[in-house]
Amino acid sequence: MRQQNSKPAIVSANGCGCLVLLICIGLMGAIIIPTFLARLNKGDRSEVRLTVTSMSRAQQAYFAEKSAFATSFEALKICIQTDTTNYKYSLRSTKQAAFNYGVSKEEKLKSWVGAVFAVPDKEVEPNAAKDEISTIRIFCQADDPGTIKPADPTYKNGKIACGQGTTELTN
Question: Which helix (H) or strand (E) holds 34?
């Protein structure tokens, strides 16, 4: 019978460990950096989404109380900055609708528009009282990044839709 050598074999890497480490760091950088940059853009998107959504909800509350849409931020009584690093916020109201804009100040970001429409309840709910009015809202994002105010959403024949060059986003 022969005895087997029970000593572990020693393998010398002679620099291979450094090369493997550099490759791992490079791969991690290739994965982490794009993810980090994507999160930065989502942070910008979160800002505009939250602000335009808040403006639209405030318009709905204002309409429920006053039977009209607010024409200024002061009337809405919401505390938002109308001019941030990435966006400029504004609003426009008519008798039938309020439009809330988050217009990008950077070519790489997309602009948003939210709209609130005053509609007869009969158009939304067939069994509703004849003279009751409700509000419905829609949120739209520009299809392309840029610093141009997006097209206004529309309300026609009982349906709301985003304007040309914008896409509806779920609330």
Answer: helix 16-66
